[in-house]
Amino acid sequence: MGQGMGQTTDLTPGPSKIAEAIVRFFTPPACREYVLGDLHERYVSPKQYTIDAVRAVPLVILSRIRRTTDPQVLLMEAFALYMSFVIATRFLAPATFLFDQWGLLRLAIPTLIALVALVFIDAYADPSKKSFIKPMLQAALGVGFAFLSQATFWASGAELAVPLEIMLYGGGGSLILVSALRMFFAPGEPRRFV
Q1: What pLDDT score does 187 carry?
Q2: Are the CB atoms for 86 and 97 separated by under 8 Å?
Q3: Which pLDDT belongs to residue 151?
Q4: Residues 33-51, mean pLDDT to the nearest whole number
Q5: Percentage of residues in the chain with pLDDT exceeding 70?
Q6: How far apart are CA 53 and CA 59, in angstroms?
Q7: 178 CB-side CA count, 13 A
Q8: What contacts 24+ positions apart, CB below 8 Å, involve 26-29?
């Protein structure tokens, strides 16, 4: 009937494990526990939890992007990516490729996709995990997203697709240059010049 002395039960309602798992998945690791704790404290109903999560998580992601993205480094990465593709095009494609109506735009698409991927990679990077190969893995993932974007163009036969050979050589050059930039200017950390 009753509970014994010293025994308490927590009857406070809380969000479902599935809802918390979804929020945990979409929240960057550096902010995850704070966001989950705040949402748990504010819990009133499943509907209210969902509304709070939909409002909070994108703002947390944007805040994390703002903190981890250095505009100067991002600009250097953009230049390195784009020039890798331009140089590969110059040596591998007909001279008219760069001067076609959409030539330079075609090379900007994989550059932009890789940059966006790198921004999100930085936002979701776990600051407690540091590794020598982390910059190379991040650069590879960014260039990998550029390849995926081009794969959709190749599959659909779109005119904006960059030829595979240019993607291979430009992606390889990008991987080397972006990795080097990330080693010298670690994302999310203040730069110190002596």
Answers
A1: 63
A2: no
A3: 92
A4: 93
A5: 89
A6: 10
A7: 34
A8: 26/57, 26/61, 27/57, 27/60, 27/61, 28/60, 28/61, 28/64, 28/123, 28/124, 29/124, 29/125, 29/126, 29/127
